[in-house]
Write a structure and sequence with these properties.
There is one protein chain. By secondary structure, the chain is mainly alpha-helical. It has a domain of about 120 residues: Four Helix Bundle (Hemerythrin (Met), subunit A). It is about 65% helix and about 0% strand. The chain is built from 8 helices and no strands. The radius of gyration is 18 Å and the shape is elongated. The relative contact order is 0.11. The N terminus is likely disordered.
């Protein structure tokens, strides 16, 4: 069901963010060499110019929430394992891969029209008021996730724990300013 909703959201976002004269189809855009611009991430980022319909915004907000839940669940697994007497590095590596996969997507989860004025969200309005700072924090998170994933591929627990601490700091750096704690 969630995948179906996400798929519908992608179709709606692409359809509403047409860059042509209204007659250009996604297939035509792909055929003309614009396949890269047809990705969800690019379409969402480009949507800042055209506000989303409320249903689209709410669907994207739900998708954003679910993605952050995946990151949170992965961090929980990692924390538990790294506190254990004999950490399960396989679980740490799997969770690190999940975070590394999702981290680059963070900026695309916050187009205009998906803030607290539209619906329930933990995202503060400051995200849209300070886009450069938010983008810098998202980049720091991406870099920390990549560094942690690299460390997790090894067997040096001190390095893994250090990289995990840095990852946690990057999360906190964004949460302190841009997340409404419930």
């Amino acid at each position: 069901m969630r995948k179906m909703i996400a798929g519908i959201s992608v179709v709606l976002l692409v359809a509403c963010d047409s860059t042509g004269d209204g007659n250009e189809t996604l297939a035509q855009a792909n055929a003309s060499g614009n396949a890269a611009s047809a990705t969800l991430e690019n379409r969402v980022q480009q949507s800042d110019a055209t506000p989303l319909q409320k249903e689209q915004a709410l669907a994207l907000m739900e998708q954003r929430h679910e993605s952050y839940e995946k990151i949170g669940d992965a961090m929980t697994v990692i924390s538990r394992q790294l506190k254990a007497e004999n950490p399960g590095l396989g679980q740490v590596r799997t969770a690190a891969a999940t975070i590394t996969e999702l981290a680059p997507q963070v900026p695309s989860w916050f187009p205009a029209g998906t803030g607290p004025d539209i619906g329930k969200t933990e995202a503060r309005a400051e995200i849209w008021q300070k886009p450069e700072d938010f983008a810098a924090k998202a980049q720091a998170f991406r870099e920390a996730a990549t560094a942690f994933n690299t460390a997790a591929q090894g067997a040096d627990l001190a390095s893994i724990r250090s990289a995990h601490a840095n990852l946690g700091k990057s999360c906190k750096g964004c949460h302190d300013l841009y997340r409404e704690e419930e």
